Amino acid sequence: MDKELVTAYAYSNLQRAILTNLLADILAREPEPTNGLQAFYKDIKRDLRETEFPPEDPDAEKVRDEAVALAKRFFQDAETILMKRGKLEKRNLIL
């Protein structure tokens, strides 16, 4: 793997770690973090599904599907952080 690709992956991992922890921090302040996590996931998933891609792009559906898959993993990570912090007792996120 060339250096630029390694740097891109590393930067992506850093962004994910920052955003996941920020989301967990925000939801930890909610009276019902499970409900907030579920609502936010639904909003993000709906936005990803409704996002317009150029109609002539043959890979548009693949990109959309991968974005939804990444969202699932992202929100599962946030749920895990909330559990580790004692803000959730069990996994309730409906994907």
Compact description:
With 95 residues, the chain is an all-alpha fold. The protein has helices spanning 3-28, 33-50, 60-84.
Kindly provide the radius of gyration, computed on alpha-carbon positions and rounded to a whole number of angstroms: 15 Å
Shape: flat
Which range does the strand content fall in? under 5%
Helical stretch count?
3
Classify the secondary structure makeup into a structural class. Answer: mainly alpha
Order of helices and strands: HHH
The rounded distance between the terminal residues' Cα atoms is 33 Å
Which ranges are low-confidence, i.e. pLDDT below 50, for 5 or more consecutive residues?
none
Characterize the largest beta sheet: strand count, sense, and whether it forms a barrel. Answer: none
